[in-house]
Amino acid sequence: MKCLIDECLHTSLVEVVRECGHEGYHVNWLGPDxxxxxxxxEVTLVDDHIEITRYDMPA
Length: 59
What we know:
The chain is α/β, with parallel strands linked by helices. The protein has one domain. Helices cover 31% and strands 19% of the residues. It contains two helices and three strands. It has helices at 12-19, 37-46, and strands at 2-5, 23-26, 50-52. It has a three-stranded parallel beta sheet with strand order 2-1-3, sandwiched between helices. β1 (2-5), α1 (12-19) and β2 form a beta-alpha-beta unit.
C-alpha cells in the first residue's frame, strides 16, 4: 500500500507506515511549498496512494 501523509501530520508518521511494511511519503517532500488540495488529490489518484490526514474531506 502507498500512503501519502498530509502536511497537517508530522513527518515521523512516515516511519510508522514504513515499519508496517508499506510505502510512505509526506506531502512536504513533494515540493518546496505546501501543495494545494487539488495537487495532493491528483497525486493520490494518479500514483494510487491513500492519503492520511486529520481533516474531514468529502468523499
